[in-house]
Amino acid sequence: MEPIKVIIADDDDFVRDGMRIILGMDQDIEVVGCAADGSEAVQLARENIIDVVLMDIQMPKMDGIEATKKIVAEDRGKVLILTTFDDYELVNEAIQNGAKGYLIKNHPPEQLKDMIKSVYNGISVMDESVMDKLTASRRIVEAAGFVKESFTQRELEIIEQVAKGLSNREIAKALFISEGTVKNYISTILEKENLAHRTALAVYYLTGEK
């Protein structure tokens, strides 16, 4: 199998070099290039065949959210946000611009590698601390924008499990239905709400924002 081709975009030299070394030790991952700002990341993605972009948010010239928007719009690769910020508004903005995952910079190398592989394989990921914060926000504001009446009871059960970060297999086991049924339900829900992927669905459920 071809290695997963990755770009690292971060304005901190130490972070970029460290991640390049760490990821370079995994035979399943190939670091194609590094960018010091969002515009460099977009250019690298345009000049190379890329699978996943590790994207910081706050960078000079062009921030990570704008760079994500451009890369996704041009179908240049999947974006995994890797940052020190866990503000749910930033989370929501990044996801609405097409990010497939959102992680805080405190994960051990092996977990980071696993997250990259998950995003590459089409599985959206979100940091547990970010998910906890979104959940707390939901308890406080009751997610006024999320209308429960728009969904069947089974759809709500599945949405709640998605918001907990469970995979289709885990949801199927928890609800005693087939994995294929879960997949069909999620596809229907995403289409109904005009959402791009399951992470956006989780954010919508937890914050009421699309």
Q: What is the element layout, followed by pairings?
A:
Elements: E1 4-9, H1 13-24, E2 29-35, H2 38-47, E3 52-55, H3 64-73, E4 78-83, H4 88-96, E5 101-104, H5 109-120, E6 125-126, H6 128-141, H7 153-163, H8 168-175, H9 179-193, H10 198-207
Parallel strand pairs: 1-2, 1-3, 3-4, 4-5, 5-6
Helix pairs in contact: 2-3, 4-10, 6-10, 7-10, 8-9
Distance from first to last alpha carbon: 36 Å
Shape verdict: globular
| Overall mean pLDDT | 86
Give the helix tally: 10
The CATH superfamily name of the largest domain is Response regulator
Which strand order spans the largest sheet, edge to edge or round the barrel?
2-1-3-4-5-6
The level 1 CATH classification of the largest domain is: Alpha Beta
Using only C-alpha atoms, the radius of gyration works out to 17 Å
Low-confidence stretches: 138-143
What is the CATH topology descriptor of the largest domain?
Rossmann fold
Compressed to H and E, one letter per element, the order equals EHEHEHEHEHEHHHHH
Proportion of residues in β-strands: 5-15%
How would you sum up this structure, described in words?
The chain is of the alpha/beta class and 210 residues long. The protein folds into two domains: 4-128, Response regulator (Rossmann fold, 3-Layer(aba) Sandwich); 142-207, Arc Repressor Mutant, subunit A (Orthogonal Bundle), CATH 1.10.10.10. The protein contains ten helices and six strands, in the order βαβαβαβαβαβααααα. It has helices spanning 13-24, 38-47, 64-73, 88-96, 109-120, 128-141, 153-163, 168-175, 179-193, 198-207; strands spanning 4-9, 29-35, 52-55, 78-83, 101-104, 125-126. The chain has a six-stranded parallel β-sheet, sandwiched between helices. α1 links the parallel β1 (4-9) and β2. α4 (88-96) packs antiparallel against α10 (198-207) and α7 (153-163) packs across α10 (198-207). The longest helix has 15 residues, at 179-193. The radius of gyration is 17 Å and the shape is globular. The relative contact order is 0.11.
